[in-house]
Specification:
The chain has about 600 residues and is an alpha+beta fold. It folds into 3 domains: about 250 residues, 4-Layer Sandwich (Aldehyde Ferredoxin Oxidoreductase,  A, domain 1); about 180 residues, Orthogonal Bundle (Aldehyde Ferredoxin Oxidoreductase Protein, subunit A, domain 2), CATH 1.10.569; about 80 residues, Aldehyde Ferredoxin Oxidoreductase Protein, subunit A, domain 3. The chain is built from 27 helices and 16 strands. A hairpin with a 2-residue loop joins β13 and β14. α1 crosses α2, α12 packs across α13 and α12 runs parallel beside α14. The longest helix has 21 residues. The two termini are about 40 Å apart.
Length: about 600
């Protein structure tokens, strides 16, 4: 079976031009999504480039199997939050529409427009359009206005990836959203949009999906749709409650941090019940094209403070529910504003809880906060702080808008003992790192923020994939089976493993090129070793230094295939065709 061709749409906002590139060879080597995206960033962005300069690029990446079952887009760029490799994934219809334009390697945006613009992609029609009337608007109004406008013009329903005021104001953890509930959150992708004066990307494709063997693809879809494992998924707790499922367990069993990481349980958790919320406020469930999970749970509610809509899921809820000591009802109202302003929930939740801690201990003052009396669990004060962060008003909120490292420099060394963030400059707003059973201590303490997994490269959603493993086997076999039908490439199990390893080393190497070093940047906060926490059910957790060092070495060598120090093995780089990285990385002392 002949393989298919992979086309990349390149748009230069500075010159106002676009072209189509054949990147089939790179897709065969790195797959799509973050795999191809990291290669584009390496090739096109010079070392040391300011992530908020026109020299940065933004790859909105699809891959060989996007749209086969569910849709996923993996965006790649240099991160304004870390300065290293950045990756932000998003579900919904954007990936499906990009595939139907036949730009099946995604969209690459370069340069900077001289005014606010949005990018229109309608099959082969590519236009950079004025967005002056959209600039400054909240996300819901932005997307609705844009989609209605394009529907009146074309009679087609477009998908749109948009930013809010957070991205426009270059908040370093700003996000980009689609369909009002899907969020590309990590690394400050919204600030990259904003730095390019790019308010949105609107895309519509009307062509058949570009697969090599449509008969085989249809068989795979039928198998997925009718298999008992998929039926179980539809009828399971996950199928009914989506990402709500498990929140209460994580809050109670030590899986989430409370009060800026000073605890792992509080009675406030009992005010936070996803089941009660679902019965009270949910109107429908929402899933991506072809996916049985329906993991999105939009809600609508009226309160004494007004009418609110939003989407309740673990990632955008538990960071405040636990860390800032609030129940779901208060958090829902804050998240409604958060989603309109366009910032990453987990990062801003952690930063706001840290600010409450600093205020309580006198490290920052009411004057620093622009007059806010910032106390634990105060919904109104938290709403005002969120608004001030996004618009960079007053000393402390403006510092928080720069992320953890920047804010620590502004607040001084006395703020550091209260800081609760990971090696990738991300808030630890959930998945308590001291909880070995429910936490993500090793991921928090060794990550660099760039995309590197098979799912981010093949653009396969983990939430859709739970039945895959029962039907087809482990992730490598799922990817091999899907790629065979979609791209026409017959890859063996070991070839898939090599691609996974190549993507992982390449992503970490890109971050290392930009200054990441495991000796300096791989850590957990000091409190993870000195301040034990206890779950509701009496399980106490804390890391011992020697236990952490042993676990980290094992994680580096067994899971990430690095050296015990987290360095890149020279032999593996050469074996996987990444030897071109060695002359660049060797002076940075990151190659063993």
């Amino acid at each position: 079976m002949p393989g298919i061709k992979f086309n990349l749409l390149e748009v230069d906002l500075t010159t106002g031009t676009s072209r189509t590139l054949d990147v089939t060879d790179d897709v065969k080597t790195y797959l799509g999504g973050c795999g191809l995206g990291n290669k584009l960033v390496w090739d096109l962005v010079p070392p040391g480039t300011d992530p908020l300069s026109p020299g940065n690029v933004l790859h909105v990446g699809v891959g060989p199997i996007t749209g086969l079952v569910g849709t996923k887009v993996s965006c790649s760029f240099l991160s304004p939050l870390t300065g290293w490799a950045g990756e932000a994934s998003i579900s919904g219809c954007v990936g499906d529409e990009i595939m139907r334009t036949r730009y099946n390697a995604g969209v690459l945006v370069r340069g900077r427009a001289d005014r606010p613009v949005y990018l229109l992609i309608y099959n082969d029609r590519v236009e950079i359009r004025d967005a002056a009337d959209l600039w400054g608007q909240y996300l819901l109004k932005t997307e609705n206005t844009l989609r209605q406008r394009l529907y009146r013009e074309t009679g087609q329903e477009f998908a749109a990836l948009c930013i809010g005021p957070g991205g426009e104001n270059l908040v370093r953890f700003a996000n980009a959203t689609s369909e009002n509930v899907h969020s590309a959150s990590n690394g400050g992708i919204g600030a990259v949009f904003g730095s390019k004066n790019l308010k949105a990307i609107a895309v519509k494709g009307t062509r058949t999906l570009p697969y090599a063997d449509h008969k085989r693809v249809w068989e795979l879809k039928q198998t997925y749709a009718m298999h008992p494992a998929t039926m179980v998924q539809k009828r399971s707790e996950w199928g009914r409650y989506g990402a709500n499922d498990g929140m209460r367990a994580l809050l109670n069993y030590g899986g989430d941090s409370f009060k800026n990481g000073h605890s792992s349980w509080d009675p406030i958790a009992d005010k936070s019940d996803g089941y009660i919320h679902e019965l009270s406020y949910r109107v429908w469930t929402h899933g991506c094209p072809g996916c049985a999970s329906a993991c999105f749970q939009p809600f609508f509610k009226n309160t004494s403070h007004g009418a609110f809509s939003g989407e309740l899921r673990h990632g955008n809820t538990c960071g405040l529910c636990g860390n800032a000591m609030m129940g779901f009802d208060e958090v829902e109202e804050i998240n409604s504003l958060l989603e309109e302003l366009g910032v990453d929930a987990e990062n801003v939740h952690g930063l706001m809880a840290w600010a409450m801690d600093l205020y309580e201990h006198g490290v920052i003052t009411r004057a620093d906060l622009g007059g806010i009396d910032l106390k634990w669990g105060d919904r109104d004060a938290t709403l005002e702080l969120l608004r001030k962060i996004v618009y960079k008003e007053s000393r402390a909120p403006a510092a928080l808008a720069g992320g953890w490292r920047y804010a620590i420099d502004i607040f001084g060394p006395e703020s550091r003992p209260y800081a609760w963030y990971s090696s990738a400059n991300q808030s630890i707003a959930r998945y308590e790192p001291r909880s070995k059973g429910h936490g993500l201590g090793l991921a928090h303490g060794t990550g660099h923020g760039g995309g590197s997994g098979l799912f981010d490269a093949a653009t396969m959603c983990l939430f859709a994939a739970f039945p895959f493993f029962e039907i087809w086997g482990p992730p490598q076999e799922v990817a091999r089976t899907f790629i065979s039908a979609a791209a026409g490439w017959e890859l063996g199990f070991e070839q898939i493993n090599d691609i996974i390893q190549r993507i992982s080393l390449f992503s970490r190497g890109l971050s290392m090129r930009e200054g990441f070093h495991p000796d300096k940047h791989s850590f957990l906060p000091a409190r993870a070793f000195t301040e034990p926490v206890t779950s509701k059910y009496g399980v106490t957790s804390v890391w011992k230094k020697e236990e952490w060092e042993a676990a980290r070495k094992n994680y580096y060598t067994q899971a990430l295939k690095l050296t015990e120090r987290g360095l890149l093995p020279r032999g593996e780089l050469e074996r996987l065709g990444l030897e071109f990285m060695i002359p660049v990385l060797e002076p940075r002392q990151v190659i063993a």
